[in-house]
TrEMBL record:
InterPro entries linked: DNA/RNA_pol_sf (IPR043502), DNA_pol_Y-fam_little_finger (IPR017961), DNA_polymerase-Y (IPR050116), Rev_trsase/Diguanyl_cyclase (IPR043128), UmuC (IPR001126)
MF term (GO), any: DNA-directed DNA polymerase activity
Signal peptide: none
Family that this chain belongs to: Belongs to the DNA polymerase type-Y family.
Species of origin: Collinsella acetigenes
Residue span, UmuC domain: 21-210
Annotated protein name in UniProt: DNA repair protein
Length: 457
């Protein structure tokens, strides 16, 4: 339970068996790292992290808190920044951000065991603080302030935190209430959750509820979490199936998952995927070039994992025709990341999946299947702006079933060749040995090999 002052009552916590979780976020992380390196202050100076070589339509990966106070939304595009705002542009350095993040994680490990921490993203983590409150003779707020202070002192980066009696409440406290707290710490238990979050809108600010779920809830007349609690459960289950259980629990501020559950979780099935947003509209044949590169990259990933698959999936996102404007249906939600148009654009994508006749990790076989699927679902008259591919039902390659007809020997030879190519890439760089197709004008493989997460390393 939480005392009226907002701190955790340790005695009652021990008695009722509730656990206390922290969710810590590094504020405007990429922008903060760039500010520290330049001797700037994220609270005072205007800075955006963006690759301006991609044009004024490029998305800002981060902006400083000072720019947010001017009403500029996070993840905006360069051209959306008002002309009268002067700012510094920092080229993304993803590898550097990952190194700083790892160092900050090392700082947390000076206070807590690895078993009690879960890295959620490059700038966010969960910590089970329960055993450490008595160890350090402090309450949860003091513990959060200690961790946040250590990060500020060593790295010059500000952090905010959410404190909750379960993982969900800690995350919601971070996302919803921490930003309104003077010390950057939000605190929620189930009672405070009902008081301060039940009626919060837009509902898409709540962890785990995206635009798709929000659309379906709105059709049921629900615009906030309290509305979910007032719906008959059979209505929610009819609309969302098994996922209704999560919606109902979260609407009441409940979450049964613990840190131990996270660390012991093993998925029943596994998959790999790759996606790419193209810098310009691509023709049907140019799209096949990108598809070939992506399938080869995915085959290398399978080889490194010593895995094979028997299912593929493909998503094609079309470019908006020049003579067509986006639908102007009402914008329902306005949140931290700006206005969200909740209407789906019709006929702007094509999707498909196939169960393969064999288990394989072979590039030649995988590309043959992907190419067949690509030709089957893609409209050749339209230009392409996005490609996503995936392989599923992964199993260790030693469990592959060989027959007289599936060419295991030939595939083994190809895998050996792929392994030799992979060794060269590991030793001399990803671009040391490339297929000729990657030297075509429309190819992106060589440039993407220099990037981390689609951005400059």
């Amino acid at each position: 339970m939480f005392a009226t002052g907002g701190s955790v009552n340790q005695k009652s916590t021990r008695q009722d068996g509730k656990r206390i979780y922290l969710c810590i976020d590094l504020k405007t992380f990429y922008a903060s790292v760039e500010c520290v390196d330049r001797g700037l202050d994220t609270l005072v100076d205007n800075l955006v992290v963006a690759d301006i070589t991609r044009g004024r339509g490029t998305i800002c990966l981060a902006i400083t808190a000072a720019m947010k106070r001017l009403g500029i939304r996070n993840r905006c595009r360069i051209f959306e920044i008002p002309a009268n705002v002067r700012y510094t542009v920092a080229q993304p350095r993803m590898r550097h951000y990952m190194e700083v993040s790892a160092q900050i994680y090392g700082t947390y490990l000076e206070y807590v065991s690895p078993e009690d921490i879960h890295v959620y993203s490059v700038d966010e983590c969960f910590i089970d603080a329960t055993p450490y409150l008595s160890l350090y003779s402090c309450d949860a707020r003091a513990f959060a302030l200690e961790l946040m202070g250590a990060v500020k002192k060593r790295f010059g980066i500000l952090a905010t935190a959410g404190i909750g009696t379960n993982l969900f409440l800690a995350k919601v406290a971070l996302d919803i209430t921490a930003k309104h707290a003077g010390d950057g710490i939000g605190i929620l238990d189930e009672e405070l959750f009902r008081q301060h979050v039940w009626n919060h809108r837009p509902i898409t600010d709540i962890w785990g509820i995206g635009p798709g779920i929000a659309r379906r809830l709105e059709r049921l007349g629900v615009l906030d979490l309290k509305g979910i609690t007032q719906l008959p459960e059979e209505v929610i289950y009819k609309e969302f199936g098994v996922n209704a259980e999560y919606l109902i629990d979260h609407a009441w501020g409940q979450e049964s998952c613990t840190m131990a559950d996270i660390h012991t979780y093993r998925p029943s099935t596994s998959s790999l995927s790759k996606g790419q947003v193209l810098c310009r509209p691509y023709s049907f044949e140019e799209g096949r070039t990108i598809l070939r590169e992506m399938v080869e990259s995915l085959s290398f990933d399978l080889l490194e994992k010593r895995a094979i698959c028997d299912r593929i999936s493909l998503y094609i996102g079309y470019a908006m025709p020049k003579n067509q404007t986006k639908a102007r249906s009402p914008t329902i939600f306005v949140g931290e990341h700006g206005a969200r148009n909740m209407a789906r654009e019709p006929n702007l994508c094509a999707t498909g999946s196939r169960k393969l006749p064999e288990q394989t990790g072979s590039f030649s076989l995988l590309f043959s299947h992907f190419d067949t699927l690509y030709r089957a679902i893609t409209d050749e008259e339209r230009t392409i702006k996005r490609l996503n591919i995936g392989v599923g039902n992964l199993i260790p390659e030693e469990l592959r079933t060989c027959t007289l007809f599936n060419g295991c020997e030939r595939e083994t030879e190809e895998r050996n060749l792929q392994g030799a190519i992979l060794d060269v890439k590991h030793r001399y760089g990803k671009n040391a040995l490339m297929r000729g197709v990657s030297y075509r004008k429309e190819a992106t493989g060589r440039e993407r090999n220099k990037q981390v997460g689609g951005h400059h390393a």
